[in-house]
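User: ok so my PI wants both of these folded by tonight, can you help

Assistant: No problem, let's get them done. Here's the first:
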Amino acid sequence: MDDFTPEQVARGRALRRAQVPWLLAGRLAALALSLVLGLTPAGAGLVTAAGGLFGGSRTAEVLAGAAALVLLGQLLGLPFAARVRVVRGRYGLVTQGWGGWAVDALRGLGLTLLLGLPLAYGLYALTAWSAQDWWLPAAGAAALLTVALSFLHPLLFEPLFNRFTPMPPGPLRDALHALAAQDGIPVRQVLVADASRRTTALNAYVSGLGATRRIVAYDTLLAAAEPREVELVVAHELGHVKHRDVLTGTALGAVGAAVAVAVLGLLLSWPPLLTAAGATDAADPRSLPLLAACAALIGAVSGPAQCAVSRRIEARADRHALELTADPDQFVAMQRRLAVTNISDVDPPRLLELLFATHPSAVRRIAAARSWQQT
């Protein structure tokens, strides 16, 4: 804590206390809505009513029901997201107007529908083939889709929310390319994301697999940080590539998606759940809210374990950055700058960290860097 002034510590804690209740309330509200719709006849009624607006066929019920579930979830989440945005705006972390925020929300909704409706259609085509064994081909398809989305994300989805321009030639770009070459990692491009039109927060990342791999730095990071600090951030991100975190994460995600589908197949064959949901079997479109509720519950239960794995991965990437640059002092300076500019709670309550944090706290990262320095 000695690395931060009392004012910086207090500011980070105040932001956390102001926004975390709204973030948690939004998650709980979304989960509660899913459970109410999935475990009572209300969801079945929603699917039937939505399908009836488009002719009442089985296909209409699947597609309109899926769309209705997505829209309800988005509408429920909007007040909580808006409140978090207001809080962050009071701390100077938001640069985007409400109009831009609304456009981003609509883009996100459109993307969710674009991906979700074909998935729902395909899934219920499989349940029509077999109400008992549908999950076998669905599990394989879920694994393949996870891999495909990981590869396509930087090419198709990232440009929907940010504009990317090549970093101008100069010492920093040369240094980042040299850092990647020193690490033995081929990088196609070094790009700058126009994050400043939304936020003042600092970040950088390496995205893509193989031919799509590129280093991306926020323009906010380039404007606020020293060049060596930018290198340290990128060295951390290169650590994810060096340890094949993206590839391993994609593989584990594919396995996890397949296992989740298998669990969903088991749950949707359990008569008490189907009766509670007002559905006859997995092939009945009225089981769609039950499917969504079970998926949401699986995600909520597995969240802390995923966060624990993520923190270990991030700590390993920190060690990689230190080993690659051999510059612990600048690493500490970089962690200070990130924490202060992003107004992070540098030492949050342990329970919150265990349940929700994907990265170690700033205090822990700095302590680990100093420990590394002494070895």
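One down. Here's the second:
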Amino acid sequence: MIGQSRSDPNNLIALLRRAWAHKRKGEVDTALADYGRAIELAPKDTYAYLGRAGAYLIKQDVDSAIDDYGRALLTHPDNVAAYVGRGRAYNLKGEPDRAIADCNRAIEISPERGAGVGLICRGHAHIIKGDIELALDDFNQAIGFSPKNPLPYVGRASILHARGDLELGLSNIKQAIELTPNDPQLHRWAGSAYFQGGLLSEAHDAFVRASELDRKDVYTLLWLDLVRQKTGQPSGLDEASGRLDLSNWPAPIVRLFLGATTLEDVVKAADDANPVKMRGQLCEAHFYGGELALAKGATDEAVRLLRLAADGCPRIYFEWAPANAELRKLDTRH
């Protein structure tokens, strides 16, 4: 490969690097094409399968991701990343027992290197199963192994948030932010906790910071709009929508917030042939529809929708914990 151009379609390393770059920029289909070409050149290259599996997960094509993680394990049977990645995929698919088996295998293979990521993966599987104390124990252990990894703090915060312990949940998110201060999703987590705690000024600042870090994150803009509605400020969502891709989900939710469509149409738009994708989109439709109804003072409708979200959202989705926290705050049975 010496002397070959980095854009050479026959250069394996160039293809893998280019695919990784496309994946980071959100150009997932282009990344998949490059990974596919890399696999044609080197059918036993573990990293090509791992990279493509990660791209499939971004598209929520969970079955294809699981297949590629399996192929990676055929080429490298003790690959920790493949076991953890497949465990995460099984979590997304709602098969926590399979996820736990893969996460346990990662921990067995490498008690030092695999324990931290394996414990986080297993913790989320326990959340899906409803074994909350086991999940907390896994996240606590993961922090012991990797105290500078923000993910177990986020996992712990999601449980505390769902329980309605917003102060302690926020404390964990703040710890995660100290470790990775430029992660927009962590600031969105903080904003959500402030929002549900009634600290709207702090919530506004957190969502603004999240939006500064990622100007195209639709969900942050939806939260910011909710804060503005509750504080009597002008929306700003219409202007911001000009820089968003409104050709795909969650565009219907944006239109709902703008008053340009109905909740019924949003729920219809959430339908998808991919059951994992459909479940996630229905979760978001119900959750953000419920929050919007609550901001407008339609409490009964908000409770109905938030209960659908709490019951239907995958427990590893961002919206699951806030839906439960909101219902607890409203003191409703769910």
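The chain has 19 helices and no strands. The longest helix spans residues 275-295. Good luck tonight!
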